[in-house]
Amino acid sequence: MRAEERRQAIRELLQRAKQPVSATALAAQFSVSRQIIVGDIALLRAAGADISATPRGYVILRETGGLVRQVAVQHDAAGMGEELNAMVDQGCTVLDVIVDHPIYGQLTGPLQLSNRYDVGQFLSRCAQSDARPLSELTEGIHLHTLSCPDEAAFGRVCRELRRLGVLLEG
């Protein structure tokens, strides 16, 4: 298979995928190295593909038909799991985390967490890594972009985050 054919196949696979697909899984499927896949993804992005890298793999973000909202929160690293579960338990997907860095400006980390299993996997990767959450760069202050099925679900998220004492409100 030629490189251009492989890139087109990767794009089509990601469009059909219901879950993120890792570079390792793509490399095995196309019998190339992981680094070749990383390069293919970079070239697809440069050509305009809306491919995001999440902690669980690559995704092409789709319109959910629901509401997209943001919440501002503040907590320490120990509160991360409780905060994320509070959002997914209300039927929302945590699309990303955003911090305002004093040097680099806005930094965004895609998450794509939809349920407690996703949150657990994310927390497990955090515990096994030397890397620190983005929120530690900003004394725990950060935003999350959420995809919610409706306004009622978003309202429940805000009430739960308020109950936890982590919701920042103007």
Automatic annotation (TrEMBL):
Domain Helix-turn-helix type: 6-58
Residues annotated as domain 3H: 71-167
Protein name, per record: Transcription repressor NadR
InterPro entries in UniProt: 3H_dom_sf (IPR035922), 3H_domain (IPR004173), HTH_11 (IPR013196), NadR (IPR026043), WH-like_DNA-bd_sf (IPR036388), WH_DNA-bd_sf (IPR036390)
Metal-binding keyword on record: yes
UniProt entry keywords in alphabetical sequence: Metal-binding, Nickel
Positions bound to Ni(2+): 75, 83, 142, 144
